[in-house]
UniProtKB/TrEMBL annotation:
It comes from Cryptomonas curvata. One of its GO terms (biological process) is cell division. Keywords: Cell cycle, Cell division, Cyclin. InterPro entries: Cyclin, Cyclin-like_dom, Cyclin-like_sf, Cyclin_N, Cyclins_cyclin-box. The keyword Cell division applies. Residues 17-101 form the Cyclin-like domain. Pfam families: Cyclin_N. This is Cyclin-like domain-containing protein. Coiled coil: none annotated. SUPFAM superfamilies: Cyclin-like. Belongs to the cyclin family. PROSITE patterns: CYCLINS. CDD domains: CYCLIN_CCNB1-like_rpt1.
Length: 101
């Protein structure tokens, strides 16, 4: 979080609380949540993110972790819906490529 200029620990805490709710709503495995947090931490360590994209990073981390840990992961459209259409399918897929790159 030291590299971040636009987000702080409180915002990250709010994101974590929301991701826990998403995790429970989708009935995902505990390992999925832990991996999600690790993916987000690694991304934030190396990339500066503005507050408007913090939730995008979070939901993309959850999607990536779901693909790795779940037998039947939620689809991209489910993540678009859970964000209340704040991000498009294309934005989530672009962030996925960025987080994997």
């Amino acid at each position: 979080m030291q590299r971040q200029t636009d987000i702080n620990e409180r915002m990250r805490s709010i994101l974590n609380d929301w991701l826990i709710e998403v995790h429970l709503k989708f009935k995902l495995r505990p390992e999925t949540l832990f991996l999600c947090f690790q993916l987000i931490d690694r991304f934030l360590q190396d990339n500066v993110v503005n507050r408007q994209r913090l939730q995008l990073v979070g939901v993309t981390g959850m999607m990536l972790a779901s693909k790795y840990e779940e037998i039947y992961p939620p689809e991209v459209r489910d993540f678009v819906y859970i964000c209340d259409n704040a991000y498009t399918r294309e934005q989530i897929l672009e962030m996925e490529q960025l987080m994997l790159g």
